[in-house]
Amino acid sequence: MTTIWRSSLLLLALLLAACSPDAPKFRSTDITGADFGRELALTGHDGKPRTLADFRGKLVVLFFGYTYCPDVCPTTLAEMAGVMKALGKDAERVQVLMVTVDPERDTREVLAQYVNALTMWLTLGTFVGYAVVYTVILKPLTPQNIVIGGAAGAMPPVLGWAAVTGDVTTEAMLLFLIIFAWTPPHFWSLALYRTEDYARAGVPMLPVTHGKDYTGLQVLLYTLILFGVSLLPYAVRMSGWPYLAAAVVLGLVYIGYAVRIYVACSERLARSCFRYSIVYLAALFAALLVDHYLAL
User: Fold this and answer.
1) Helix axes 170-192, 241-263, angle to 10 degrees
2) What is the CA radius of gyration of the chain?
3) Helical segments of the chain, H only
4) Which element (helix H / strand E) includes 237?
5) What is the pLDDT of residue 96?
6) CATH architecture of the domain formed by 39-114
7) Predicted TM-score (pTM) above 0.85
8) What is the mean pLDDT of residues 256-279?
9) Of the spans 33-42, 84-93, 277-286, which averages the highest pLDDT?
10) How far is residue 134's CA from residue 147's CA, in Å, rounded to a whole number?
11) Where are the domains of the chain?
12) What is the mean pLDDT of the chain?
């Protein structure tokens, strides 16, 4: 009996020693100025060639592994996802890359499955929303087709944001709102000088069902809403003064077109407003991009 007790105490002591509270020390090597590891030329899960130049201006976290790894690879990916989420907005400046060491089994199709599921489901929802809800149901049914169906057309920034960060944040929804508010005045300007075409096709666009005067009022109202929404990125500190200045100037010009359409609409003016709406959205997002890199 004494031998058993001694053995048990020895085993307990060994277990307690193994549970030492001292954290293991992280050991690494500073490779600053090294001649190796300066370039990367591989193929991404989407089949496109990737180099380190694609991630210029970002901190790249690079590790090697394979999808069939039973322990360290999936846990590392999970840890990186947690770190990216904890970084919040600063996660935009970090890019996590996993290079597979098992290319035979880690095919493009297999690696593509590791792209976050959120993006996949959002993309599926966008496709159904546009191809079915908008095109098949709303477009021939109601003059509000553009307003409701515009949600599907405003999703691309959200999809891109989710693909990069794995999350849908306030900033992503602001980009969505800008396009969502832009869609009605954009398409109604087109409908104002293509009213007869829509009428012959049996599509109940707003100028067909409510007349051009009412449509002109809606163009003005939605343009004013768009102007307010376009200032929100600055209000939430997503952007700085360069974007704000661009948004104000571009928005005031757009409002000028909308006022003229409301007061004295003509096909020529509606066509000009439609063309400017395309320039407006491209310039607005370009300003946001320039503002982002000026802040780095």
Assistant:
1) 30
2) 28
3) 2-18, 72-87, 108-112, 117-128, 145-153, 156-165, 170-192, 195-201, 206-210, 212-230, 232-235, 241-263, 267-294
4) none
5) 80
6) 3-Layer(aba) Sandwich (3.40)
7) no
8) 94
9) 277-286
10) 10
11) 39-114, 169-294
12) 81
